[in-house]
Design a protein that fits this description.
The chain is mostly helical and 71 residues long. It is built from three helices and no strands.
């Protein structure tokens, strides 16, 4: 599995981010990953979590703004 760069992460949908994160977790849980690769996977997983949070925050703001416009 090739590590994604920051700009590539931001282009993923939320669902794609979660799928990628699940793949990373499964690979690390297997116990067959060298330490350096585990650290890279961990870093990518943390970046995915942050990107997903940012995307959810943007969606939340958009929903709140739309709801206020409807009132």
């Amino acid at each position: 599995m090739e590590e994604l760069k920051s700009d590539e992460l931001n282009q993923l949908s939320y669902e794609e981010m979660m799928t990628r994160l699940e793949q990373i977790i499964a690979r690390m849980d297997s116990g067959n990953v060298p330490l350096e690769e585990s650290l890279r996977a961990f870093d990518e997983g943390m970046a995915l979590i942050q990107a997903a949070r940012n995307k959810l925050d943007a969606y939340r703001i958009k929903i709140e703004e739309t709801a206020q416009e409807e009132q």
